[in-house]
Design goal:
Elements: H1 13-28, H2 32-36, E1 38-40, E2 49-57, E3 69-75, E4 77-86, H3 87-94, H4 103-122, H5 132-135, E5 141-143, H6 150-163, E6 170-174, H7 176-184, H8 193-201, E7 205-207, E8 214-218, E9 224-228, E10 233-239, E11 243-256, E12 262-267
Parallel strand pairs: 1-9, 5-12, 6-7
Antiparallel strand pairs: 2-3, 4-11, 6-8, 8-12, 9-11, 10-11
Helix pairs in contact: 1-4, 6-8
């Protein structure tokens, strides 16, 4: 038995299998950070810190005549979103029911994916996570509301990266608003905007809930590292006669290795 306590839940093996499958389906689409950064792990629930390979001096060694330094590490953070599933629905799953009603699981999965994206792209000060956009030294490329001109903004971001010697291919993380507008826009002559952007980038365009505006970033590797302790997993809390109380949980750290390898694209008025 591990800390997820799944063995204590009144859920059959088939039920857990279906819940895991449903969670994966709902999580995968929104986990933009994992598609655009280097993903390391999972290294296990007991993995608590990322080695930074650096040290800092200590001013007061235990005795005179001895110098002292302390190794620097980046602690992993844990994210958890709770939900519940009706016991009647679990019983129907065991009977072979299709399309289970798992609205709370879906909401929890969306919240976890969005939280991970926000931490990676925009930072999480309380947890000591420095995000991609706040680390980038480049000025934000300001877009207007005419998405026919969006390729020029993305091309400007790519040019900023090239001027720093940051090679491609490049990826584009699109927040909800920008993603919807890009999908719905066709440039003059009916040329799909999505296709035009793909040709500029040479890499993927990714739906990224939680991202403000968009982020253009190099996919050459080695610039951004998401280190997973425990990957996203379902765990059990308790149950009563009506429902089983569960949660989705993960632990991770995030490091910006090369701050120059990303450029933010945003409207002149940031809704945040």
């Amino acid at each position: 038995m591990n800390h997820l306590l799944r063995e204590l839940a009144p859920i059959s093996d088939a039920g857990w299998s279906e819940l895991d499958r449903e969670a994966r389906e709902r999580l995968t689409a929104g986990l933009a950070a994992r598609r655009l950064t280097d993903f390391s792990g999972p290294l296990g629930w007991d993995h608590s810190a990322t080695n930074l390979g650096r040290v800092e001096p200590l001013s007061e060694p235990p005795v005179d005549g001895v110098s002292a330094i302390r190794r620097r590490v980046l602690p992993l953070v844990e994210l958890c979103a709770e939900f519940q599933v009706a016991r009647a629905e679990l019983a129907d799953l065991d009977r072979g029911a299709l399309a289970p009603k798992l609205d709370e699981l879906e909401a929890a999965a969306r919240a976890l994916a969005r939280a991970e994206n926000v931490a990676v792209f925009h930072g999480w000060e309380a947890a000591g996570v420095v995000g991609i956009t706040e680390a980038s030294p480049h000025p934000t490329v300001v877009r207007d509301d005419d998405f026919n001109r969006y390729p020029s903004h993305v091309a400007k971001a790519v040019e900023l990266l090239l001027c720093e010697g940051i090679a491609g291919p490049y990826g584009l993380a699109l927040g909800r608003e920008d993603h919807t507008s890009v999908i719905e826009t066709a440039e003059h002559g009916g040329y799909p905007l999505f296709q035009h952007l793909s040709e500029i980038l040479g890499g993927p365009i990714v739906w990224a809930p939680g991202v403000r505006g968009a982020v253009v970033m190099s996919l050459r590797g080695g610039d951004f590292v998401l280190e997973s302790g425990q990957d996203l997993s379902l765990g059990y809390t308790s149950h009563d006669t009506e429902a089983v109380h569960l949660y989705i949980e993960e632990s991770f750290s995030f490091r910006v290795i090369t701050a120059e390898a990303a450029v933010a694209v945003a409207s002149a008025v940031d809704p945040s």
